[in-house]
Amino acid sequence: MKQIVKWIKNLFTGPRWDLTVSYNTTWGDKDDKSYTVKKFKKLSDKHIKFIDNNGKSVEIRSTAGLHYRIEEL
Q1: How many CB atoms lie within 10 A of CB 19?
Q2: Could you tell me which of 30, 68, 71, 73 has the fewest CB atoms within 10 Å of its CB?
Q3: What is the pLDDT of residues 29-70, one digit of tens each?
């Protein structure tokens, strides 16, 4: 039943993801940022570009590499 509701919701809104970016190797400290992502434009180890839930374009870069976690909502 839950999967049917999720399928109908995704049919109208599209899939969404929860992106958590950590700027160091420690998860859960105060430098972590979370975003709700509507669409990924570029996803690599040093550069992430996406459209957030509000329709704004967000770009994150790091020369040392990014630590990120993606979960489907």
Answers
A1: 20
A2: 30
A3: 888 899 999 999 999 989 999 999 888 999 999 888 888 999
